[in-house]
Amino acid sequence: MGKRKIRTDFEVTQLRPGIYRINEFDVANCYLVVGEERALLIDTGTGIGNIGAVVRGITSLPVDVSATHGHPDHLGGKNWFSAYYVHPDDEQMSRKISLPLRAGLLLFQGSARKKYGVGLRDLTRGDHTAQPRRMEEAHRFDLGGRTVEVYHTPGHTRGSVVLKLIEDQIVFSGDDVNPFLFLFLPGSTTVREWIPGAERILALSEGCENYCGHGTDPIPPEQIRSQIRLAKELVSRGNHFPLPLRIAKCSDFKACILYRPAHVK
Ligand SMILES: [Zn+2]
Ligand SMILES: [Zn+2]
Hints:
- By secondary structure, the protein is of the alpha/beta class.
- The chain has helices at residues 51-58, 72-75, 91-95, 99-106, 110-116, 191-204, 221-237, and strands at residues 11-16, 19-24, 28-34, 39-42, 63-66, 83-86, 131-134, 140-142, 147-152, 161-165, 170-174, 180-182, 209-212, 246-249, 256-259.
- The protein has a single domain (11-263), classed as Ribonuclease Z/Hydroxyacylglutathione hydrolase-like (Metallo-beta-lactamase, Chain A), CATH 3.60.15.10.
- It contains seven helices and 15 strands.
- Strand 14 (246-249) and strand 15 (256-259) form a beta hairpin.
- The chain is globular, with a radius of gyration of 18 Å.
């Protein structure tokens, strides 16, 4: 870690009064929802710098931490807090997040390095050993005047969830309907198993803004629809591709699915 100052210069954007996107140096998006009594932090990033200090700079209310899923770019900063909520299907994954895993992930983040000068020395350990808490389907966070509901949508990982902020009609979808949808990772479901969760996210997103774990634009429903159509095509077509990884592009939308052809049905 050296003597380098711990970074807190995350880019914070107020999406609406009391709702913030905390951009972790273009690596991942975290979101902070502030109610009248409590606040909820959705994802903690990779653990570059001190996201705990950033959150405390925004609100002095007690903060709960929840994870859209157990990947190291979303829970790598968990140890700046004493506990985090995660779906039981991703709990194991979240416990295995290590410094080498986070460092390996950072090596692929060109924008963080070039635009923000982030280096491996900026990865921090935090000052807690955060304990997992179970967050299952229908879990509710009552923040006082704002309610966040949890929906289990396996796909990108088996324990992926979306969190819906009811009063403001905002859906936080993690990585489960990203324009570059990763279904090839070790903890991912098959393409077929992803479809029901994606259909659910589409229904939940009706009349809502949908913010995801990477990038800046809310995800339009047409994109999700297009990816679902593509996934159904892939399932009906079956596995006739000789390589272990394939990128299938949507014909009518700038989006794609990265998947393992042997892991479709
Ligand atoms: Zn992920
Ligand atoms: Zn991610």
